[in-house]
Design a protein that fits this description.
Number of helices: 2
Strand order of the largest sheet: 1-2
Structural class: mainly alpha
Order of helices and strands: HHEE
Number of strands: 2
Strand content: 5-15%
Largest sheet: 2 strands, parallel
Oligomer: single chain
Length: 51
C-alpha cells in the first residue's frame, strides 16, 4: 500500500514543492524583520551582518 502512494508522486509534484518552498522562503525574507529573517536572524540567517 505504501509503495502505491510513492508510485503516484511525479516529477511535477516534486518540482512544485521545491518552487513553493523557495517562494515561501523569499517572501518571509522580504516581509519579516531582520531579527527574524535577515543577517543574523534566528529563523532564517541570510548571511553575515555587514559592517
Amino acid at each position: 500500500m505504501q509503495m502505491d502512494l510513492l508510485a503516484q508522486i511525479t516529477f511535477d509534484d516534486i518540482a512544485l514543492s521545491f518552487l513553493t518552498c523557495v517562494v515561501v522562503r523569499e517572501t518571509m525574507i522580504m516581509f519579516l524583520p531582520d531579527q527574524i529573517a535577515g543577517p543574523g536572524g534566528w529563523l532564517i540567517d541570510t548571511g553575515a551582518e555587514e559592517a
